[in-house]
Amino acid sequence: MDKTQTGSILIAEPFMVDPNFKRSVIAICDYTEEEGTVGFVLNKPLGLQVNELITDFPSFDADVYFGGPVQTDSIHYIHNLGDLLEKSTKVVDGVWWGGDFEKLKFLIRSDMVQPHNIRFFVGYSGWSPGQLEEEMNLGSWMLSDLDANYLFKSKPKKLWKQVLKNIGDTHSVIAQMPDAANWN
Predict the structure, then answer these.
(1) In this structure, what DSSP letter does residue 173 have?
(2) Cα–Cα distances in Å, from 1 out to 5, 7, 114, 159?
(3) 45/88 Cα distance (integer angstroms)
(4) C-alpha angle 51/40/11, rounded to 5°?
(5) In whole angstroms, what is the distance from residue 112 CA to residue 96 CA?
(6) CA distances from residue 174 to 69, 137, 138 in whole angstroms, order as listed
(7) Please, what is the average pLDDT of the chain?
(8) Does position 5 have pLDDT exceeding 60, yes or no?
(9) Helix or strand or coil: residue 174?
(10) CA distances, 114 to each of 35, 45, 80, 81 (Å)
(11) Where do the domains of the chain lie, and which CATH numbers do they carry?
């Protein structure tokens, strides 16, 4: 993939020092040249359950992830429910963003949604128009295609390496680099 678009993923270069994005994989859920970019970090679980953050949420064993440093007082969700959850936005095949929150709670109470169908995020990652392109030109990010399995079947702690291995070529070598440079 050569161009950022909705449905792509950003992979942090191995020496990124920003703690918000170190070794992160970000799903781009909305991208336009005029408006900028919205995405969610896929591999930083917070160790919380969604019903611990939302008081009237049904009991639901779903982990919450750090979506990014923007609006960390907000909760977002990505799911594979498709049209079952009205007002969702399709990102790529098998991946939708948002939707009617009250309907989501109803579907959970009715056991029509399981934790493996949805991922919750606190905050999001956002870039103003042109900002992400500048960061990519500086080599901060690598780009690839979003696959639903990255969200719903992969282990978050292993996702960064998995994505690089899936891209192949020199990226497979990069995936083997230790987290701390002093280990080299």
Answers:
(1) H
(2) 9, 11, 32, 19
(3) 23
(4) 140
(5) 16
(6) 26, 19, 17
(7) 91
(8) yes
(9) helix
(10) 33, 18, 10, 10
(11) 8-183 (3.40.1740.10)
DSSP letters of 124-150?
Answer: EEEE-TTHHHHHHHTT-EEEEE--HHH
The tokens of 154 are what? 């992969």
- DSSP secondary structure, 4-72, as one string: --TTEEEEE-TT---TTTTT-EEEEEEEETTTEEEEEESS-EEEEEHHHH-TTPPP---EEEE--SEEE
Distance of CA 125 to the CA centre of its chain: 9
Percent of the chain with pLDDT over 90: 82
Query: Where is pLDDT greater, at 88 or 172?
Result: 88
Exposure b/e, 57-91, CB count within 10 A at least 16 = b: beebebebbbbbeeeeeebbbbbbbeebbeebeeb
**pLDDT of amino acid 53:** 92
- For the entire predicted model, the pTM comes to 0.91
